[in-house]
Every structure is written in C-alpha cells, then in structure tokens.
C-alpha cells in the first residue's frame, strides 16, 4: 500500500546539504512505497504551520528534515492536533540532539530506510505552558546560548559555534532566584540553571540526564545551585563524563508535573529555541507522538550505547 508523506525541510540546515540531496531522498522514499511531497520553510513558525496543514490534508507521515529547531517547530504543529500521524526525522542540523537520542542515523539514506521500514514507537512529549518540546526545557545563563548563535554562523562552523559562544558567556554567569514546586518537592534557591529533560542527549552532552527515558511518562529535572566560575567549569567537565549527579551543587528528581517561577525575567529554552519566560507549568504528555526509529530502539530507551 502506498503511503503519503509530507517532507518539511529547512533549506539552510546542515550547511544547506538538503538542497543537494533532495532528489535522491525523494527517489529513495518513492522506491520504498512512500509518495512524498515537499514544503521548504521560509521563516520562523512556518514548519509548525506546514505540519498542522499536512495533518489537516490527511498525510500518513510527516517528515522533519533539518536540525533541532525544525524538529521543534514540526512537533509544535503536530502535538496539539487530535489526529497525529507518525513522524520521521532526517537529521541535518548542527547538534541533532533528539535524533541522536533516538538512534536515528546521521546518514540520510539510512534515516530514509528507517521511515520506509515503518517501525514507529510512541514517545512522551513535554508541554510548557502552551508550547511543546521533546528533548529538553531549561533556563539560566548557559541555556540562552542556543538562540544567541546566529544561524549563518551555525551553517558555517557547526558545533564549534556553540562552544565559542559558551566561552564568551562564562564570565557573565549569574544566579537566578527560583521557586520550584513538583510532586513532593518544594525548592526556593538561587541557581545557575535548571533543566527539564525528556531524553538523555542534551547539547552534545550524552550523559547529562543518564536515567532519562523517552517513554517513562516522567521528566528528569536537574537544577544547578549557585556556584562560582571555577566550580561551574569543574561541573561542566564532570557532566561530560556523567559524573555530576552526586555532586552537592546538583539537585535531581523525577516528576510528571512541575511549576517554576522566578523573581527576575527568566527566558525558557525549549529544544534549543526561545519558548517564552517564567512562570511556567511543565507537564508530561505520555506516549503522545509516534516516531520512526530503529526497531531495537536501544539509545531511545535508556540503553544508550
């Protein structure tokens, strides 16, 4: 049976690789029995509108081709709809956090083959006020990096752009005063940052939330208490190795629902995009989206090899 797919792609993702590869991608999908039409995004919010329109038009599959930003928008176009077709991912961005967490290969032909194979699994989606995320929500000085890096710079130098911007920001790190309420948790502290994780791969840190699973109906919440610059750098090194969880500066708990408010104006980062400001209510929507992935699903379900 022929399946119909809508491929939503960001023409500037991954050093504009999609423009060169589009004909072979379409041919591979067609040969696999997926009749595919395309939508090239033209600006902010366009991928969300295109995803919602694809659902209204009755497509069997929606495919997001781009980086984490494109995927974030496509999910925001799908998650609020009543009927949600399966989602395919073609990772073309700088970090591709979520594709990595799902074990979706960077090679586009292999990523196409996953969609053709048709094995989809339900994953949890996070809701932050009226927006949605599937990988990570956060706030604090370092989480502002992702939307401060200009897209042209990301296209040209990739992952290095984030690290350059991160080093530039380090001397300006400042704590924020937070009130956090969750099931059995009440926190009022000065903190450097907070992270609400749905998966275990965040910003290239694959061990940041080591116990996070995409289908357990829970968020993994990490809060970094106020610390000085030297302590922050030490903790960043520990986080790369996954050795930070027992440090006294780190508060960790799991929850389905939490509320965070702040005295100051604190921006929220959702999957690397600006998602508004605090206060915010975070809620898990269990098994809310079906995503094509490798049938073993190892890296998506806590067995991150």
UniProtKB/TrEMBL annotation:
Source species taxonomy:
Bacteria, Bacillati, Bacillota, Bacilli, Bacillales
Keywords in UniProt for this one? ATP-binding, Kinase, Lipid biosynthesis, Lipid metabolism, Magnesium, Metal-binding, Nucleotide-binding, Phospholipid biosynthesis, Phospholipid metabolism, Transferase
Checking InterPro entries in the record gives: ATP-NAD_kinase_N, Diacylglycerol/lipid_kinase, Diacylglycerol_kinase_cat_dom, Lipid_Phosphate_FormReg, NAD/diacylglycerol_kinase_sf, YegS/DAGK_C
Gene Ontology molecular function, alphabetical = ATP binding; ATP-dependent diacylglycerol kinase activity; metal ion binding
Q: What SMART domains does the database record attribute to this sequence?
A: DAGKc (SM00046)
Which residue range or ranges hold the DAGKc domain? Answer: 1-132
Entry cofactors = Mg(2+)
UniProt name for this protein: Lipid kinase
Gene Ontology terms: biological process: phospholipid biosynthetic process
Q: Which family does it belong to?
A: Belongs to the diacylglycerol/lipid kinase family.
ATP-binding among keywords: yes
Which Pfam families does the entry mention? DAGK_cat, YegS_C
Query: GO CC annotation: what is one?
Result: plasma membrane
